Amino acid sequence: MRSFNYGELKNIKWDNEILGLVARLHEYKGKQALFLKQKPATLEKLVEIAKIQSTESSNKIEGIVTTATRIKQLFSQKTTPRNREEEEISGYRDALALIHESYEYIPIKSSYILQLHRILYRYSQRGIGGRFKNTQNYITETKENGERIVRFMPLDPFETPMAIDAICESFNREMDNSDIDPLILIPAFIMDFLCIHPFNDGNGRMSRLLTTLLLYRADYVVGKYVSLESKIERTKEQYYEALKKSDINWHSEKNDITAFIKYILGTILAAYRDLEERVTVIEGNAYAIDLVRHAVNNTIGKFTKSDIMELVPSIGKTSVENALRTLISEGVIDRVGKGKATFYFRKN
């Protein structure tokens, strides 16, 4: 089994792009402290929306979907899961809620990771929750001709418990030493977690839950207010490409995790920018049409109604639809397609 020593990260000379991302995120962490102190009521308006978006998007990445109406019903806990998809969505809801409420009391240890996985599958009848894998799993890729190939082989089941213990111990040691920025340590830990692939199922969703947990524990709490999972779901091709580049030669400990670090830090930075924008908009008490107009003016290329709803979560679907119709009538935007295939674009 390969070894895990995150202390070696301090010997790497990161390029200017990573250093710049880290510096920008340090700045936003300072702004975050001001937001939390001065605008708690404004931020609270964003929490529930972000939870729903995170749960929906993280499951959607894995092909686990249900309707928007059912998502809201499951979140209000006025209904019970109807099928396997809704069982897993409900489990993610509960695990994310626990992280939101108690992240300070969830240490990075194997036993707690297993407990989070047990919660993820608490509604499932499959009996896999809270247990490391008992069969070899594979990360596959489908080629253009339809052929399915094994792209990456994770660790064997017998190596898995030791490997998870090792990454937790090394991560905690380096966090205590404070020689390496958490913004470098966190992607490195998540990369190794995904390469170990410790569970029979749920590895991707667990990696996103752990990303949120680690960021919160490092005092980067933007994911409470802007869904990181939603941003990953919208850029999942880049996400998988970064993983693909960063796991080459992983078993021989010669992999380069630069691409994955850049992707994760870029995602966090995009969330902080959105948070700043949303706080400004809500504080301005703008009308729905003004909010949508502002969102449209800051959008490049084609966009959908869902894109705008994500940018202005403080107003409802009907208000967004009415505002888009107004902007069409004003000649600001145009619409192409019908139904789910509909998209919009700004007119010059």
Question: What is the tally of helical segments?
Answer: 14
Encode the helix/strand succession as letters.
HHHHHEEHHHHHHHHHEE
Question: What is the general shape?
Answer: globular
Helix content: 55-70%
Total discrete domains: 2
End-to-end gap = 58 Å
Task: Provide structural commentary.
With 348 residues, the chain is mainly alpha-helical. It has two domains: 25-282, Fido-like domain (Fic-like fold, Orthogonal Bundle); 287-346, Winged helix-like DNA-binding domain superfamily/Winged helix DNA-binding domain (Arc Repressor Mutant, subunit A), CATH 1.10.10.10. 59% of the residues lie in helices and 5% in strands. The protein has helices at residues 16-38, 40-61, 68-76, 84-102, 110-120, 160-177, 182-196, 203-217, 228-234, 236-246, 258-283, 288-297, 305-311, 317-329; strands at residues 139-142, 148-152, 333-336, 343-346. The chain has a two-stranded antiparallel ribbon. A two-stranded antiparallel sheet has the order 3-4. A hairpin with a 5-residue loop joins β1 (139-142) and β2. α2 runs antiparallel to α4. The radius of gyration is 21 Å and the shape is globular. The model has no long low-confidence stretch (mean pLDDT 92).
Task: Give the helices and strands, then pairings.
Elements: H1 16-38, H2 40-61, H3 68-76, H4 84-102, H5 110-120, E1 139-142, E2 148-152, H6 160-177, H7 182-196, H8 203-217, H9 228-234, H10 236-246, H11 258-283, H12 288-297, H13 305-311, H14 317-329, E3 333-336, E4 343-346
Antiparallel strand pairs: 1-2, 3-4
